[in-house]
Design a protein that fits this description.
- This protein is mostly helical and 200 residues long.
- The chain folds into 2 domains: 1-57, Orthogonal Bundle (Arc Repressor Mutant, subunit A), CATH 1.10.10; 60-197, Tetracycline Repressor, domain 2.
- It has helices spanning 3-7, 10-33, 40-47, 51-57, 61-86, 90-105, 109-121, 127-147, 155-174, 183-197.
């Protein structure tokens, strides 16, 4: 038992345990068959909880996908942060941020595209949706920091350019015409467009 878990009461530990089981069950099933082919009852069964309990943690299958993908996205963002710190030049730094995010999103293409749709059209008041929006904002902030390494770019302009980079990345990952494209092809498409807007 960790120090943190000892500080929590039994009820809080039980909630965290259920959340971990739900996240694992949903992640496994979504990876095996895709989000559209999995029912919430199957997730509840695999997590060994009742369906009613499941909906206390996520109100819809879309929210369950957000729950699962957010943890993967957070890891990709941290990888991008580390890679960008070691990158030489603005374009290489932006590429370092983008690549892990694209890799994360393309592990299961249909799930990744559904995740992006949930981010854009989901309810921002839902906690897992809010967390996804926070992650996308953190990605933009990181890209803005990388772009601002170029002394010719003011911080406000770097933030605007980062927003454009984010939009390019989202569209490239979500586009139906790109469903069969590899991670390398998606990254190349994004970088070719990014080159057009960055001062090089």
């Amino acid at each position: 038992m960790t120090v943190e878990s000892r500080l929590l009461g039994r009820r809080e530990r039980n909630k965290l345990d259920k959340l971990a089981r739900i996240t694992a069950a949903a992640g496994e099933l979504f990876a095996e068959r895709g989000v559209d082919e999995v029912t919430t009852q199957e997730i509840a069964d695999r997590a060994d909880i009742g369906a009613g309990t499941l909906f206390l943690y996520a109100k819809s299958k879309g929210e369950l996908l957000l729950l699962v993908q957010n943890s993967t996205y957070a890891g990709a963002l941290e990888q991008g942060r580390a890679d960008a710190a070691a990158a030489d030049g603005v374009l290489a730094g932006v590429l370092a941020v983008i690549r892990p995010v694209v890799e994360c999103n393309r592990k299961q293409v249909d799930n990744g595209r559904t995740y992006l749709r949930e981010i854009v059209f989901g309810d921002p008041e839902e906690p897992h949706h809010h967390e996804a929006l926070t992650l996308t904002n953190q990605t933009e902030q990181l890209v803005a920091e990388v772009i601002a390494r170029d002394n010719r770019v003011a911080p406000a302009a770097a933030a605007t350019l980062a927003h454009v980079v984010s939009a390019i990345m989202f569209v490239s990952m979500a586009a139906t015409v790109n469903v069969d494209r590899t991670v390398d092809e998606i990254v190349e498409e994004v970088i070719e467009q990014v080159k057009a807007i960055l001062p090089l």
